[in-house]
């Protein structure tokens, strides 16, 4: 397995992280995930590990702390990371999650 924490991130990871506003834990988590996925589609194909590594670069403060607590086995699964991220940071109700 390739390391998730390279000393210098590959150029496309940096590009993705610059296009997505950073999430610190208080804005709309659903919007953050949707914007991130939208940008990733422009860079397809991306592996799960690449998506997780790029997603990590968009997290600061409380969200960054949350990410650093994840088990390394979990961070290999992008969809699980997103699900756990939403569990931890999404606000409830129609304003925040109109799909529910």
Question: In DSSP terms, counting alpha (H) and pi (I) runs of 4 or more, how many helices?
Answer: 5
Order of helices and strands: HHHHH
Could you report the average pLDDT, rounded to the nearest whole number? 82
Question: Kindly, what is the distance between the CA atoms of the first and last residues, rounded to a whole number of angstroms?
Answer: 36 Å
SS-based class: mainly alpha
Classify the beta-strand content into a percent band.
Answer: under 5%
Shape from CA axes? Answer: globular
Our Rg estimate from Cα atoms comes to 13 Å
Query: What is the tally of beta strands?
Result: 0
Question: What would you note in describing this structure?
Answer:
The longest helix is centred in the middle third of the chain and has 14 residues, at 29-42. It is built from five helices and no strands. Helix content is 52%, strand content 0%. The chain has helices at residues 11-19, 29-42, 48-56, 61-68, 78-89. The mean pLDDT is 82. It is globular, with a radius of gyration of 13 Å. With 100 residues, the chain is mainly α. It has a domain at 33-89. Helix 1 packs across helix 3 (48-56).
What topology does this entry show?
Layout: H1 11-19, H2 29-42, H3 48-56, H4 61-68, H5 78-89
